[in-house]
Amino acid sequence: MANQVKTIGVLTSGGDAPGMNAAIRAVVRTAIYHGLQVKGIKRGYAGLLKEEIVDMDGLSVADIIHRGGTILYTARCLEFMTEEGQQKGAEICRKHGIDGLVVIGGDGSFRGAQRLAALGINTVGVPGTIDLDIACTEYTIGFDTAVNTAMEAIDKVRDTSTSHERCSIIEVMGRNAGYIALWCGIANGAEDILLPERYDNDEQKLIDRIIENRKRGKKHHIIVNAEGIGHSTSMAKRIEAATGIETRATILGHMQRGGTPTCKDRVYASIMGAKAVELLVEGRSKRIVAYKNGGYIDFDIDEALAMTKDISEDQYEIFKHLVR
Questions:
Q1: Whole-structure pTM value
Q2: Residues 131, 192, 265, 298: which is the catalytic one?
Q3: Which of 122, 124, 282, 322 would suit a FRET pair with 232, their CA atoms being 20 to 30 Å apart?
């Protein structure tokens, strides 16, 4: 395959993540370095099926590394979940001469790449999701920026929570994964974190801790609640009714997806984007680029998608030791 690769396509799919533009830039410029043509596919798999495909060159990705979001846009695509949609996508890749495809996104995006690979399209996935929920990798593009955005917001909520001697529930994103909540729980010195992977739904235990801490002189009580648990507003009402302490819910929402990517997200995304192109140039397909044990490696896409991931028990235990 190595001698056959002449044109590489690149798309972003699923939820956007800060650093995706750095990855796109790296894909385009690394491909050009290797003498390849590059086509950008707009709006993910939905854009592929609509043939929203444009030629890209070095100037196409100038001045984007510092920008959040994705210049190629992104969208969900139900049609691509069907066999007919996948076959159509493969045919469109061939029609436009796309020999290799770099897919930047999460596990759902990788399942699409897996199907295209089975249909003969050379594919490499790059993990782009703020949720950090891809099992084969210790890093995903956007997590570092998102967790820093959430951390800064929670610091601000803590200030006003202390001033009013409130209990505050701050809901962070992460879908069904608790990584953002766990990291913010440690970084923000929260009194409680509620993680989908660990929460036992014992709200009374939570209420008892709030009352106990108030008796000890605590002026606030910060609860970081993961999106996978949710229901922060109704939880706040129940806690206020049970404790008599004013309780407010703050849902940070999609602000965590936006903003200028951190240095880490720019650098790691750039390396991963370049590695994806190098894999295709080397004649390797159906791979996912990953970061593990301090280095960049790659996995077979079938193997990667079969893996499962849990939060770090060590980190969770450390959080519990730090709470007072």
A1: 0.95
A2: 131
A3: 322
